[in-house]
Design brief:
Helix content is about 55%, strand content about 10%. The protein has about 170 residues and is α+β, with helices and mostly antiparallel strands. A three-stranded antiparallel sheet has the order 1-5-4. Strands 2-3 form a two-stranded antiparallel ribbon. The protein is globular, with a radius of gyration of 18 Å. It starts with 5 loop residues before the first strand and ends with a strand.
Length: about 170
């Protein structure tokens, strides 16, 4: 079933990136809320300091799952995250249909791959690892400048595209 509220006009990269900035605000709120709940649940012992900072082993994977769930369920529910709504853009399949769970999950997973650069932090330092992640995200999105349907790497892998709504 094709979604009749979208057009065949592909979304320009600048519009996608601005929507992503809007989503950054939502993600920060989600991360802070999960952090508060975890701090309350552990009696303030989630992060301990001393000679070294120690974070509970389960905290970062939990944050990753919650943030990924925000994106996946937003894309499944209406094809839009909070950041995509004001810019009137929607993620669809190449045929203009709603995403399947596996497409949404693949899209989120591939979009998060640059975060793996943070694993280089012990060897390179935190700042260098952050720059590596940012550089890889730039490459991820620069692919959209060369693609006729303006698809970034995660869109190409998942078989999705971003369309402007009429």
């Amino acid at each position: 079933m094709t979604d009749t509220t979208t057009t065949d006009i592909v979304c320009p990269l600048w519009r996608r990136l601005i929507a992503l900035l809007y989503d950054l605000v939502a993600v920060l709120a989600i991360v802070m809320t999960v952090g508060l709940i975890c701090q309350l649940a552990t009696g303030g012992q989630l992060i301990t300091t001393g000679t070294q900072v120690h974070i509970a082993w389960w905290y970062q994977p939990l944050q990753a799952i919650v943030v990924a769930a925000y994106f996946v369920f937003s894309w499944l529910r209406g094809g839009q995250t909070l950041g995509m709504r004001p810019w009137r853009i929607r993620v669809t399949t190449g045929a203009g249909e709603r995403l399947s769970f596996w497409q949404a999950a693949a899209r989120a997973a591939v979009a998060a791959v640059p975060l793996l650069m943070l694993l280089l932090a012990p060897a390179l330092g935190v700042h260098a690892a952050l720059w590596c992640a940012l550089g890889l995200w730039i490459v991820w999105f620069a692919v959209a400048l060369l693609d006729t349907r303006r698809r970034a790497v995660h869109d190409r892998v998942a078989g999705t595209e971003i369309r402007r709504m009429s």
